[in-house]
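README, section 4: Worked example with a bound small molecule

Sections 1 through 3 covered apo chains. Here we extend the same pipeline to holo records, where the ligand is supplied as SMILES alongside the sequence. The molecule in this example is coenzyme A. Nothing else about the input changes; the structure line simply encodes the ligand pose together with the chain.
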Amino acid sequence: MANTTTRPFPVAIPVNSGDIVIRQFQPKDADQVHALLIEGLVYGPESPHNVAQHRNLFGRVSCVAYLGFALGLGCLCRNNIVFRFAGGALTLGATTLFVYMRRMITKMFIHFCARARETDMGDIPHFYDVPLSADSTQSSQPQGPGGFWVAAIESAEDKSSEVVGYLGLDYRAIPDPTSGELRRMIVSMNHRRRRIASLLITASMDHARRHAPPLETLDLETTEFQPGARKLYENHGFSLVGTRIMRMGPLFSMTVLRLRRKVFD
Ligand SMILES: CC(C)(COP(=O)(O)OP(=O)(O)OC[C@H]1O[C@@H](n2cnc3c(N)ncnc32)[C@H](O)[C@@H]1OP(=O)(O)O)[C@@H](O)C(=O)NCCC(=O)NCCS
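The generated complex, written as structure tokens:
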């Protein structure tokens, strides 16, 4: 297992198909980065969308739907036309509520990814201050506090590069020049628990230290549906500084957690 605190960057973790290197984003990574965003947040195992859907099965609205459905079925069994009519309406209403809720949650997460693509993820070099070569194909180390680190399996044989994780440091997200924000952390579901996220955090922290001052603190946000991510961040010295409720439609909301740590301990 790679040592995440002492190794210089870029580091290389050997894997079957090549080495995992941590480097800056390059324009050729864009499609893979976007695919990983959807996988990490919506469809992959342990994605916040899947966790939210699972928890929603035991949520208040679902319980109301179950109750309505059960009552409706009970009414349908009665030998009275009024009861049967009411039972039909109740079961239909409860089923509609349940399906609507599930579809809405999925829609909200897909919308979140689409918004990301319309904003920072649509132009990563610009938003994260990643300097590109004259022909815009290669990147070099950012000169400012921002940056966007990619973990990629680079094959020496065919020169291919498979993006398996990434993390951005957005220096402009917070108006205070002493604070930066870590954003968009994702690791491919096929490569988790191999310290790739830890390497990405360490790379960004090392970079932030080179820009302190003015950078003094790093913030990040995660949600109640990402307990693994919270543990990861806490392992890296971040602690909870606040929470807020994010409303996602009329029936669904989630708690967003803000974590912070000093650039130097
Ligand atoms: C959260 C995520 C980035 C972690 O990536 P990773 O490369 O697997 O993380 P690491 O291997 O560096 O984990 C280091 C430590 O963090 C903690 N950790 C990481 N993932 C965890 C999980 N799913 N459950 C519990 N603890 C977890 C563990 O303490 C782990 O150490 P261990 O493996 O020795 O127990 C990855 O699971 C992911 O992309 N999830 C979906 C998207 C997401 O939630 N992103 C965060 C956005 S805020």
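What to look for in the output: The longest helix spans residues 81-118. DSSP finds seven helices and eight strands in the chain.

Section 5 describes how to batch many such records.
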